Amino acid sequence: MNVNDIPKVELHCHLEACFQPQTVKEIGQTLGLDIPEDPEIFKREWLITEPVDNLEQALKKFAHIQTLWGSEETIERLTYEACEYGVEQGIKIFELRYSPNFIQGANAKLSFEKIHDAVVRGISRGGHLDIAVGLIGIVQKTLSLKEAEYTTDFIIENKEAFVGIDMADMDIGLEIRRFAPLMAKAKKAGLRVTLHSGEENVPEAPQHVRIAIEELGAERIGHGIHIIHDPGVMDFVKKENVLLELCPTSNWLTKSVPAVSRHPIRKLMEAGVLVSINSDDPHLFDIDLCHEYDILHKELGFTGEAFNRINDNAAACSFLPPDEKQKVWPRKIPAIR
Ligand SMILES: [Zn+2]
Prior knowledge:
Layout: E1 8-14, H1 21-31, H2 39-46, H3 55-67, H4 72-88, E2 91-98, H5 100-106, H6 112-125, E3 132-140, H7 145-157, E4 164-168, H8 180-188, E5 192-197, H9 205-214, E6 220-223, H10 231-239, E7 243-246, H11 248-253, H12 265-270, E8 275-277, H13 289-300, H14 304-317, H15 322-328
Helix pairs in contact: 4-6, 7-8, 9-10
The structure holds zinc ion (ZN).
């Protein structure tokens, strides 16, 4: 099967982890970054290609990629190239998400406005491409309530450029509840809500997913795979038509599953849960979206027909406006909500 030819929907891709090797080199020179010349050393020091044993080392790699987003010019260029990458992968509906706090974390001189405007310029530059791109703003779960409110308000103020809002980063357990008013505010302003939840294999994972949906208003869940241990929560997710944004290689690299062949994607589908296939942090993981299709085909026997069904559902659950989605999608998008 040539997975490149499958028209795809990607709903869960972190913009900051989208970068091409040649671009990294050039950006390194422009910004004066110390980037290893040797591709093998670059891979070892900058990319996550083996399951993470050492959180400190993984964080160092995130800190490295943060520095690539160090000027308005590089942000615009990387964003435009992310759209081009999407076209190369056969993606027709592409939701990219970014965290203004993450980019600003290593680049204090850039204001949220400057970062955001550069991202928007990058997407506009790709306006001629045969792809519909939607932007999701991320509020990090690790922020204080005050900081999170500032970021949420920023996303709301710029809502014409965003299709949705997300909360990402380390799992903070039931503490997530304190952000519920912020997500309610974003929803009221017309933004759609997706949340990272149920990614780590902890006993509370299914409960966290239920809270994300019931109390924080999530319409989609990033990962959510560990609901597999709780039939009650699985039924609930199914009844609410909440789609899980699944990222098989990412789950393997973070040790959320022991191997892609042991990923619960098939079991979730058999239980009637809506799923989509995503890359999460493609170039940080040294993968692309086609790699995820390939591995699901080879390790779990997914067929072209299964991929089409998954993508039709993903198209239906994309936060982009219906007419924009249908314009680029080759089949009639089913009604799910
Ligand atoms: Zn993610």
